[in-house]
Amino acid sequence: MLQQTDRLALAVTDVDEAARSLNNIFDSVVVDDTKDKEANARRVTLQWGCDQLELLEPKGPGPVADFINSGKRGIFAGGFTLKDPASVAARIENAGIKVTQQGDRFVVYPEDLRGTGVILSPIASREQRIGLMDKIWQITYTVPDLDAGVAFYSDLFGIEEEMTNLYSSELWGYHAAITWFEARKGAPLDSLEYLDPYENDKAAGRFLAKTNGIGGIYMATVHTPDLPEIKRRIEATGGGWEGTPNGALGFIHPRRTFGLLLGVTYFDNINARRPTPEEPEAWNH
């Protein structure tokens, strides 16, 4: 049922500082500044390429304050769009998980869903691009058991019939799966990734350990033709960029993006090796 990965929400202690810093890196712009009554937080929304980045600063007790006070930083929730968000919200509620409605969108706070906050919104146009970003193409969860994690979220989100490929990374020490919302060459890359770390001393393993083995949203990845300029800006203003030898993928350290571990790549780099029903083994990590 999910169709697009359209936004991220970050929990921050100073929303003005975060907005300034992120806008300086990505040329994103503030498009909304409001009080989120349900979360008891100030919510500043950046237009971040074709998608959006929400920054949440707690204004008192509530789920954002709880997230920060527990020692966490970074991705509070990952957002998906679909034609009928109420239908998936109902599935989640039927599973005994609390859902909060905010106008035409639905929010699940991370404390209620294994550390994985969710925002469900109506499908929207993604044609207007602001700044250096293009689109969020993947949101990545860590899970303590890969098969169980994929089964749980696939049922919860109604994506059991979508194509899911399995792979392992010896470099990063995890077993993984990717569920593609539209599995065909040239289609949008929107997808949900799951990591089940088997080496606890590597990054994903350390993240899972910090959640006491529950899991959470580990990172997100975007695609943009302006990767070289983003890399230049990160390196020119304090560092925090780690790239692959071929230059087609880089990672921005969370200290530069207020707890967000962000992968940056090119559309063609992923599209060329995305699996499809015709080429199910195309993904070569």
UniProtKB/TrEMBL annotation:
Q: Give a Pfam family name.
A: Glyoxalase_4
Extract the GO molecular function terms from the UniProt entry. metal ion binding; methylmalonyl-CoA epimerase activity
Say yes or no: keyword Methyltransferase present.
no
Q: Which PROSITE patterns match?
A: VOC
Keywords from the UniProt entry: Metal-binding
Q: Which Gene3D superfamilies match?
A: 2,3-Dihydroxybiphenyl 1,2-Dioxygenase, domain 1 (3.10.180.10)
**UniProt keyword DNA damage, yes or no:** no
InterPro entries named among the record's database cross-references: Glyas_Bleomycin-R_OHBP_Dase, MMCE/EMCE_epimerase, VOC_core
Q: Please report the stretch or stretches of sequence annotated as the VOC domain.
A: 4-126
- Any one Gene Ontology BP term: L-methylmalonyl-CoA metabolic process
**What is the name attached to this protein's record?**
VOC domain-containing protein
Q: Native species of this protein?
A: OM182 bacterium
